[in-house]
Amino acid sequence: MNEASITLANAEPYKTLDREPQLATVLENTTIAILTFDADTHLSYANPAGRKLFDDYEARVGHKLPTDSGSETLQQLLDKTRHSQASLTGEVVWSDKRIFSAEISPVQADSYVVTLYDVSRFKELENLKKEFIATAVHDLRNPVASIMGFSHLIKQAGSLTDTQQEFVEHIQNAAENMRELVQNMLNLTKIDLDAESRHDKLDLTRVLCEIADELRPQAEAKRQLLTIADTAPNSSVQGDALQLRQTLRNLIENALKYTPDGGTITLSLQHEAGTVQIKVKDTGYGIPASDLPRIFDRFYRVRNNGHDDIEGDGLGLAIVKSIIERHQGKIDVQSEPDKGSCFTVSLPCAYTGELLTALLKQEQETAQV
Q1: CA distance linking residue 251 with residue 229, whole number of Å
Q2: Fewest Cβ atoms nearer than 10 Å: which of 15, 44, 174, 244?
Q3: Which helix (H) or strand (E) element contains residue 250?
């Protein structure tokens, strides 16, 4: 609960704000919009910054927020807070296109306080940065492709000495690493810029089996056992098929890469509490406890596990997390050095998302009658 929530919780009731000079001064002069709602999410109070959000604030008091741009998103967050009775945060785009970071907290037993921070300027700068990176990464693709192409042509131009052959292989390896880095950065910028993606119903059991079949030759080359332990029926989710395939492929490829020859990679898929849970478990090198909090950070790589020679750019897990969160899921990891790792991806079942949307819509329609 934020400071504004605590302050309002201590002011009982809100209508007696004139008896609390210090509180009134803070609320009257802050540039943060502060709103309070009753148990049925009807607007009950707004400070001056909050009133500026409405064309006719007085007409809004005692009513739910209108179902127009921005207000509808905030109303949905309020409904979720009321059902969960837990503080929630989210992003709200208001009808005038301003972007707010919203925090909603239950106060006492029958009211909610909302704080809205205007982050429009920060979002604009962030988008400019992302667009710049996207342009730079896109322009890097052609020179990298040229290096890879001409390095292959060198071998066809005539016989090479052993030293020349070694140099060409170094060029090709470096170019391939650069190509992978550029492609991963491009994938991240597409996600960051909210590039258009499909949201179809996808059977994760089938996808998991297909990817396992694709990668099994890599496992066999290292004498590894890649197996699917068990799967659950009706394991459908709503999402972008290409992105979710990329997520599972990245996790399984990582398990293959960081598991020594003769190791085991076990895949499983089960249902739990309205989610589909995919586990990728390996008997690999493991991750030190000190590195676990940062392994999903961009460009972060574990450096103290004695296997620094394994190639990587530190973007694979960042891409995985971005895609999972974009699909309203979460990813967890359990790991211990020299004993292996287990990555668990949780995604809402397709029917769960559809049911929640239908219930919220029905409740809103009932409240308007």
Answers
A1: 16
A2: 15
A3: helix 241-257
Neighbouring residues of 77: CB distance < 8 A, sequence distance ≥ 6: 88, 90, 92, 102, 104
CB 342 within 8 A of CB 367: no
- The whole-angstrom separation of Cα 86 and Cα 83 is 8
How large is the greatest C-alpha to C-alpha distance in the chain, in angstroms?
Answer: 92
Residue 12: predicted pLDDT: 43
Whole-number CA gyration radius for the chain: 26
CA atoms within 13 A on the CB side of 88: 18
Q: Are the C-beta atoms of 323 and 243 separated by less than 8 Å?
A: yes
Rounded to whole angstroms, the Cα distance separating 196 from 309 reads 37
- What is the Cβ-side half-sphere exposure of residue 23, based on CA atoms within 13 angstroms? 19
Handedness of CA 153, 154, 157, 160 (dihedral sign): negative
d(CA 348, CA 356): 11
Residues of the chain falling short of pLDDT 50: 1, 3, 6-18, 352-364, 367-369
Measured on CA atoms in the order 115, 347, 344, 187, is the torsion positive or negative? negative
Question: DSSP secondary structure string, 308-336?
Answer: TTS---S-HHHHHHHHHHHTT-EEEEEEE
Q: What is the pLDDT of residue 267?
A: 94
Structure tokens at 209: 């089996």
* Number of neighbouring beta carbons within 10 Å of residue 254: 21
- Token pair belonging to 38: 């009753």
Order the strands of the 264-272 sheet from edge to edge. 225-230, 264-272, 275-282, 340-348, 330-336
pTM above 0.90, yes or no: no
Query: In three state form, how does the secondary structure of 67-120 look?
Result: CCCCHHHHHHHHHHHHHHCCCEEEEEECCCCCEEEEEEEEECCCEEEEEEEECH
Residue 285 in tokens: 């090198």
Q: Are 202 and 236 in contact (CB under 8 A)?
A: yes
Say which residue the tokens 């992105």 belong to.
243
Looking only at the bridges linking them, the beta strands covering 88-93 and 264-272 are: unpaired
Please answer whether residues 190 and 183 qualify as being in contact, where contact means their C-beta atoms are separated by less than 8 angstroms: no
